[in-house]
Amino acid sequence: MRKDWDTYFMDIAHMVSTRSRCPRRHVGSVLVQGKKLLGTAYNGAPMGVPDCSEAGCMISEEVELVVSGGIETMVKKQRCIRTIHAEQNLLLFTDRADREGSTVYVTDEPCWTCANMLANSGIIEVVYHRAYPKDTRKVHEMMTQKGIVFRQLQAYEPPQQTVVID
């Protein structure tokens, strides 16, 4: 049976993620204009710099005040700052003209920083597979404010050869 376009491009994003050497999470992204693939990227250290598998993760801890239902809660977040995220690499290695009106398929819901960058990149849609609950509320709000279609492929199953067990 022939795959639909969402599945096809998300499969490619998952395949791209297999290039990542991050021990915490493998993330891949692809840029698509209509049905034309314009670029791919994955998360990792800058070129020529030891990556997390060689030098270890560089973890930064942050605390954020989250207000939900009128209740304030302090939420602790840990992020690896050695790694350039897949979405950031995608924006670095594609042209603005190609991004105008395009869709980004990414294996994981973008973090706040990547969502901000995508919101200013000219894209009109973000399609992701795995949720990233640490930033989801504010990312969804911002994407709605920007008029960017932001959707999760819920019933999607990645190709078996791309599943990385951490």
TrEMBL record:
Could you name the active-site residues? Answer: E87
What one GO molecular function would you report for this record?
dCMP deaminase activity
User: For binding Zn(2+), which residues are annotated in this chain's numbering?
Assistant: H85, C111, C114
Domain CMP/dCMP-type deaminase intervals: 4-150
Pfam families, per the entry:
dCMP_cyt_deam_1
Q: Name one GO biological process term.
A: pyrimidine nucleotide metabolic process
Gene Ontology cellular-component terms listed: cytoplasm
Q: Which SUPFAM superfamilies match?
A: Cytidine deaminase-like
Alphabetized UniProt keyword annotations: Hydrolase, Metal-binding, Zinc
Cofactor(s) named in the record: Zn(2+)
* Taxonomic superkingdom: Bacteria
* Matches recorded under InterPro entries: APOBEC/CMP_deaminase_Zn-bd, CMP_dCMP_dom, Cytidine_deaminase-like, dCMP_deaminase, dCMP_deaminase-rel, Deoxycytidylate_deaminase_dom
- Annotated family: Belongs to the cytidine and deoxycytidylate deaminase family.
Q: Which PANTHER family match?
A: DEOXYCYTIDYLATE DEAMINASE (PTHR11086:SF18), DEOXYCYTIDYLATE DEAMINASE-RELATED (PTHR11086)
Q: Spell out the protein name for this chain.
A: CMP deaminase
Q: Which organism is it from?
A: Paenibacillus bovis
